[in-house]
Amino acid sequence: MSNDADQIRFKIHQQGADRVLAAADEEAMGKKHVGAGRVLDLIKFASFYGEETITAEELKTHISDCTSANLVGERAVGVALKMGLAQKTQVVRIGEVPHLQLYRERE
């Protein structure tokens, strides 16, 4: 069984035909990350990432099923990078925390 340090908080937001995935490493939650002229407030906006936790392996399925994703933390962002959905140069660091947004092109 995974411990809390391995968990990723996530929530799916359904907006019409679009499925927006919000996922953040558990240890990034409950903090306000500041850096490079950006602020990522995971205290104020914690509800966007939901209450449910999953593993990095489980996140792969959810990323594959979404039309866009907002990913925070080494594990959550790492899943997208390992899947080839983005490159490291697309990752923005806000303080010490990596942040990545993904969008699928509509057909």
Give the arrangement of secondary structure elements.
Elements: E1 8-15, E2 18-25, E3 32-35, E4 38-41, E5 52-54, H1 56-64, E6 68-72, H2 74-82, E7 92-94, E8 97-103
Parallel strand pairs: 2-6
Antiparallel strand pairs: 1-2, 1-5, 3-4, 6-8, 7-8
Helix pairs in contact: 1-2
Q: Tags for this entry?
A:
two-stranded antiparallel sheet; alpha+beta; uncharacterized conserved protein from methanopyrus kandleri fold like; six-stranded mixed beta sheet; 2 helices; 107 residues; 17% helix
Structure description:
The mean pLDDT is 93. This protein is α+β, with helices and mostly antiparallel strands and 107 residues long. It is built from 2 helices and 8 strands, in the order E-E-E-E-E-H-E-H-E-E. The protein has helices spanning 56-64, 74-82; strands at residues 8-15, 18-25, 32-35, 38-41, 52-54, 68-72, 92-94, 97-103. The strands form 2 sheets. It has a 6-stranded mixed sheet with strand order 5-1-2-6-8-7. The protein has a two-stranded antiparallel ribbon with strand order 3-4. A hairpin with a 2-residue loop joins strand 7 and strand 8. It has one domain: uncharacterized conserved protein from methanopyrus kandleri fold like (2-Layer Sandwich), CATH 3.30.1860.10. It is 17% helix and 39% strand. Helix 1 (56-64) packs across helix 2 (74-82).
Number of domains: 1
Q: Per CATH, what is the topology?
A: uncharacterized conserved protein from methanopyrus kandleri fold like
Count of individual helical segments = 2
Overall outline: globular
Radius of gyration using CA atoms only: 13 Å
CATH architecture: 2-Layer Sandwich
* Helix residue percentage: 10-25%
Distance between the termini: 40 Å
Secondary structure class reads alpha+beta
- Determine the CATH superfamily: uncharacterized conserved protein from methanopyrus kandleri domain like
Kindly estimate the percentage of residues that lie in beta strands according to DSSP.
35-45%
DSSP strand tally: 8
Mean pLDDT: 93
- Poorly predicted regions are none
Order of helices and strands: EEEEEHEHEE
Order of strands across the main sheet:
5-1-2-6-8-7
Major sheet: 6 strands, mixed
Can you tell me the CATH class? Alpha Beta
